[in-house]
Design a protein that fits this description.
Layout lengths: L1 H22 L3 H36 L14 H17 L7 H9 L1 H4 L7 H8 L9 H37 L6 H32 L17 H7 L2 H12 L9 H19 L3 H26 L6 H24 L3 H11 L5 E3 L4 H10 L6 E3 L8 H17 L3 H4 L7 H5 L11 H6 L5 H19 L12
Helix pairs in contact: 1-2, 1-3, 1-4, 2-3, 7-8, 7-16, 7-20, 8-13, 8-14, 8-16, 10-11, 11-12, 12-13, 13-14
Length: 480
């Protein structure tokens, strides 16, 4: 608490000082003040998140024996730090200013977003906080907000936590040196891919719903990212407020695409490497960011090549193939994100590609062997000796259920479109999935009926029962 209040006081004071210099056209002083304040924020974040990472790597390189420091990572430090860095930069640009400390305190500590985002901007929240009508109880917003909150809680408790029971044993087995079968590796990778999505998007939905109960609309953070047909589109749909922050305050400041294609690729790589490091102090996170930087560079290069060769849209089959390729690349990258070491990630990816032989259950081996022979593939089959205690049929069912939801069902913003639940709705902004309309979506759209209220009540009760049980449940993004 003291750290948060100290950070708020520092940035409020710095913001007003920068604003005074901008007003008097002392831009050089304003720029230096902004750089110093942003630097202090990054130093604070760096100490709590990266001190031991730095010490460990220095000791490894020098052969020394430096002792790790005892650091307890404060909840939400990445999000309230990034929110305030954005505020400082916006003050320097002349697009934000806050004279009232109480209002600024509310902006930073607004509790629905504080623990795990989204990353907020002053211009998004202040106009809403200053409207007198937003301080009155509105039953329509209360009903819609509570419904969104329950759906987000169900994503987390009923789906993400169930998928964790299949993802965690696989990664734990690899951590202890097990060599996975192809099927086990894919079960673990897919289960984690879906667990992470339902965990974080579930929290984001709860934040949107909880905030709407107070008549405040938060920005959308997830827009059906696993439906993306390119890596560029994926990052416009996944953790959208962080993506926008990295784009506006890092990628653009590095030069963006204004200094030629080669510089664009360098800027993309630097941005994604730092984005990966933001998620955690480990080389696996850095490598995850580097993979996505590479994917984005290839995506941009492919778009440029298509334009030069005048290659038009590939139609629905091409879109499906592009979506499958994008999803596959995302799944492989998540393996590095989840693994404790690079060696563990490489081991698991090797199993996913069958590089250690294809271990299959005896019942499946004849059919798969015949298929491989037909393709002329020299696949080495070996007996199926599970390295984990996962029940494959239950795991496949859980994964299939999760994939059906992320690929076939509408997202929360689409379900509640007529009630404008997000800041984008209020601002009239379009997002990739916002342009998709269908009969199924029209039928699925939420309406305040007795039947839906009863169904949501049952869902909420089921979630409470699981929360009250001894079942382990954690929000993955709390650690970031």
């Amino acid at each position: 608490m003291l750290l948060l209040l100290g950070s708020i006081a520092l940035n409020y004071t710095a913001g007003n000082w920068i604003a005074s210099k901008v007003t008097t056209a002392a831009l050089r002083q304003a720029r230096l003040g902004m750089a110093a304040a942003v630097g202090l924020n990054l130093l604070l974040l760096g100490y709590y998140k990266y001190a031991n990472f730095f010490i460990t790597n220095v000791a490894s390189l020098t052969g020394g024996s430096l002792s790790a420091v005892e650091v307890i990572l404060p909840l939400g430090i990445s999000f309230f730090t990034f929110t305030q860095i954005a505020f400082l930069v916006d003050v320097y640009r002349g697009t934000a200013r806050e004279r009232d400390f109480t209002t600024y305190l509310l902006f930073v500590t607004y509790f629905p977003h504080l623990i795990a985002g989204p990353v907020l901007h002053h211009a998004q929240m202040m106009p809403q906080f200053l409207k007198p009508q937003n301080y009155r109880l509105r039953w329509d917003n209360m009903g819609v907000g509570l419904s969104i909150f329950i759906l987000g809680l169900a994503k987390k408790v009923l789906i993400a936590d169930e998928l964790a029971t299949y993802a965690s044993p696989v990664f734990e087995a690899v951590r202890h040196g097990a060599v996975l079968s192809l099927f086990e590796a894919w079960i673990g990778a897919l289960a984690y891919t879906l667990q992470l999505y339902f965990d974080f998007s579930g929290y984001s939905d709860m934040a949107v719903g909880l905030s709407l109960m107070f008549n405040i609309r938060l920005p959308l953070n997830f827009d059906s990212p696993y439906k993306a047909t390119s890596m560029i589109e994926f990052w416009r749909r996944w953790h959208m407020t962080l993506s926008a922050f990295l784009r506006d305050y890092l990628y653009v400041q590095l030069g963006g695409n204004r200094k030629g294609a080669a510089r664009r690729y360098v800027n993309l790589m630097v941005t994604m490497l730092l984005g990966g490091l933001w998620h955690g102090a480990g080389w696996t996170f850095v490598l995850w960011g580097g993979l996505h930087g590479l994917f984005l560079a290839v995506n941009h290069a492919w778009r440029g090549l298509r334009k030069c060769l005048h290659i038009g849209p590939a139609g629905r089959p091409g879109a499906l193939a592009a979506g499958a390729l994008t999803f596959g690349a995302v799944v492989i990258a998540w393996v590095f994100f989840r693994s404790d070491t690079v060696a563990q990630a490489i081991s698991m990816v090797s199993s996913m590609f069958g590089l250690r032989g294809v271990s299959v259950p005896a019942a499946l081996e004849p059919g798969l062997r015949l298929f491989a022979d037909g393709l002329g593939s020299a696949v080495v089959f070996r007996g199926f000796t599970p390295a984990t205690e996962i029940e494959p049929s239950r795991a496949f069912a859980a994964i299939a259920f999760g994939l059906a939801i992320v690929w076939l069902s509408p997202n929360v913003r689409q379900l509640f479109a007529r009630f404008h639940p997000t800041w984008e709705d209020m601002a009239g902004m379009k997002t990739p999935s916002g342009n998709i309309r269908s009969r199924l979506l029209a039928r699925a759209e939420w309406a305040p009926t007795d039947a839906r209220a009863f169904a949501l009540g049952i869902l909420f009760f089921a979630c409470l029962l699981l929360v009250a049980s001894n079942r382990t449940s954690e929000f993955l993004y709390f650690q970031f």
